[in-house]
Amino acid sequence: MLLCDNRQIIEKPSYDVVVVGGGIAGISAAVASARNGAKTLLIEKQINLGGLATVGLIAWYEPLCDGKGKQLVFGIGEELIKLSVKYGFDCLPPQWGGNPQNKNPSGGRYTTFYSPMTFSLALDEYVRESGADIRFDTYAVYPVMQNKLCLGIMAETVSGKEFYPAKVIIDATGDATVCHRAGMPTVDGQNKLVYVSHGFSKKELENYDSEKDLLSFRKWNWAGGNGFYAEEKDGLLDSSGTTSDSVNEFIKAAKKEAFSIIKTFGKNDYELSSIPTMPQFRTIRHIVGETTLDGTESGKTDVGDCVGCFSDFRKPDTRYMLPYTTLYNKEYPNILAAGSIISAEGEGWQVTRVIPPCAVSGQAAGTAAAMCAKDSLAVSNLNVVALQNQLKKDNVALEF
Ligand SMILES: Cc1cc2nc3c(=O)[nH]c(=O)nc-3n(C[C@H](O)[C@H](O)[C@H](O)COP(=O)(O)OP(=O)(O)OC[C@H]3O[C@@H](n4cnc5c(N)ncnc54)[C@H](O)[C@@H]3O)c2cc1C
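Above: query sequence and flavin-adenine dinucleotide SMILES. Below: predicted holo structure tokens.
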């Protein structure tokens, strides 16, 4: 017999802004919101911050510059790259603050490897210092809706069913769970099988040279299709990551593939130092916003409703502006999206889903949310020039 869920709801204190998801986008959003005076809560289902960029073991911060020497990402995106290497190794090129001995595989762009575990602990402090509250081990289950207005987030914790009321909600879940469950139109993605783990070999230990940095102990170990390059390893499963079945199929197949590689190493020759604690999906789901980036916007210079700039991590000499209208669907007056779920598809999704643009959209969403909460505005009614002026004050570049 099925029992219905008649547990009492635990009502939690209300917030101006609740951010769901403590990855790079959610952290940027929460910090921007708190710094702009909003009472802010960051909800994270795991017990560590950083999402794919830390516990997902994606420890390569894609470039903040255009590959021609011009920096495009400033503000929180730059604070975070600096924080990522503050307490651990880096391979920043010297022109971007690195050691002259550093070898950077990108040919001198403003990018680096970092220690994902140290970065994660540093992120706790970073969010705390902004004044935002954090709730770990709190699974946002669904947005409580009154028509298209979101009254707050219902979450599941070890205490039971908890309700977090809020004026503005930011979905930074990486899979648009909040927006999707609110009824907002969304589009599913497709993911090639992938499993990145980290480890080092005995040979690397033997060759250890104290002059070298510790990066050699955090070699990426790829399994599965490495790819946004869809042609690679065809035959391996494609997965959306939007159903429990597809997540289970993906993660079981990815681990099997990875373990088959690990078993080829001698038992005393290789140490597997970290395995990911979340599935490494690149593109799970994105919202359908007021405008959608499709990748054809590269090089446009009309500032319009731009809330930040970034470059295509794969191609030097490319520049993009991020329109505010990619962060919301105006039917939903108090929900914003940030990170890899903003309104972008195809090439537009490829260029916006990596760490620097996720920080850019997060900072924009957090700033907008704080302003909307303060003046009781629908996200689509916010004065974009006022938002742009605030972002400029907060060190964001809006043109190149
Ligand atoms: C294989 C792979 C390789 C990549 N390589 C690079 C690279 O080299 N460089 C680069 O810059 N980028 C790379 N990326 C992309 C980049 O890592 C991510 O796209 C980016 O970090 C996403 O940030 P996010 O904050 O949008 O989402 P996520 O990092 O996915 O964070 C979402 C957070 O929300 C939490 N969450 C989700 N649902 C809930 C819920 N219901 N309740 C509470 N919390 C919830 C999750 O636990 C997670 O912490 C790669 C991605 C993949 C998968």
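Residues 20-26, 43-46, 51-53, 58, 60-62, 139-140, 172-174, 177, 194, 196, 278, 280-282, 339-340, 353-355, 358 surround flavin-adenine dinucleotide (CB under 6 Å).
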